[in-house]
Specification:
Strands 1-2-3-5-7-10 form a 6-stranded mixed sheet, with helices on both faces. Strands 4-6-8-9 form a 4-stranded mixed sheet. Helix 1 packs parallel to helix 2, helix 2 packs parallel to helix 3 and helix 2 packs antiparallel against helix 8. The protein is an alpha/beta fold. It has a domain of about 170 residues: 2-enoyl-CoA Hydratase, Chain A, domain 1 (Alpha-Beta Complex), CATH 3.90.226.10. Helices cover about 50% and strands about 15% of the residues. Strand 1 and strand 2 form a beta hairpin. This is Enoyl-CoA hydratase.
């Protein structure tokens, strides 16, 4: 099991627990997380979901070691992100490590996110011959346009303070200090109030899923199958510079 689940005081904590690959979005992790979210949605004792992680990485993005990464994977990630957005209960992310590429899409789908001082973020796709395709569905409505252009194109790393400034996360602060007040606030709200309030703030993102999924999933699959992406992914796995960076 790579997603651990426990419920305490109305909060279901889902922990990404695949440190050997930095909690990458393997087919197994995506499926287990999807199933855990569905279980939380059906659990009357769950008022909100807290998404966290083991190790020094919240999520490293796609598991590039898996075959067929350009096939079903984009649609699998869309399904997972949409499940987070559609869940009738708030999803809160607690980040105390690094987030890369597709992991940013998972983070951006959450309703509230808190990241500590040791966190870092980067859209690394362009450096691999790819693009932040399907993850743009929940992210672009959040991000400042100028910041999206800069970080999509350069792949630069940035910290939690910058992530909060550009709209990627809600709060830059240590989760242990920030989350108690957030979770107490969610416990104080009624299930109906939470569900309908969340529906208001996610309506535009869900319309974007309806509008853009097919085109962006096709773009992702096409890029993964390209010669440049094969070189970029191979270079990454071999820990060398791709040919265009030499």
């Amino acid at each position: 099991m790579v997603v651990r689940r426990v419920r305490e005081h109305g909060i279901t904590r889902l922990t990404l627990d695949s440190p050997h690959n930095r909690n990458a979005l393997s087919a197994r992790l995506v499926q287990e997380l999807y199933e855990a979210l569905a279980a939380a949605a059906d659990d009357p004792g769950t008022r909100a979901v807290l998404l966290t992680h083991t190790g020094n990485t919240f999520c490293a993005g796609a598991d590039l070691s898996e075959a067929g990464a350009g096939g079903a994977a984009p649609l699998g990630l869309v399904r997972l992100m949409r499940a987070v957005v559609e869940l009738p209960k708030p999803v809160v992310a607690a980040v105390t490590g690094h987030v890369r590429a597709g992991g940013l899409g998972l983070l951006g789908a959450c309703d509230i996110s808190v990241a500590g001082e040791g966190s870092s973020f980067a859209f690394t796709e362009a450096r691999l011959g790819l693009a932040p395709a399907v993850i743009s569905i929940p992210l672009l409505p959040r991000l400042q346009p100028g910041a999206a252009a800069r970080y999509y194109l350069t792949g630069e790393r940035f910290d939690a303070a910058e992530a909060a400034r550009i709209g990627l996360i809600t709060v830059a602060g240590e989760p242990g200090e920030v989350l108690p007040a957030v979770l107490d606030g969610l416990r104080a709200a009624s299930p109906q109030g939470l569900a309908e309030s969340k529906r208001l703030v996610t309506a535009g993102t869900l319309r974007a899923f309806d509008r853009d999924t097919d085109a962006l999933a096709a773009l992702s699959a096409r890029l993964f199958a390209s010669d440049e992406a094969r070189e970029g992914v191979t270079a990454f796995l071999e820990r060398r510079d791709p040919v265009w960076a030499r």
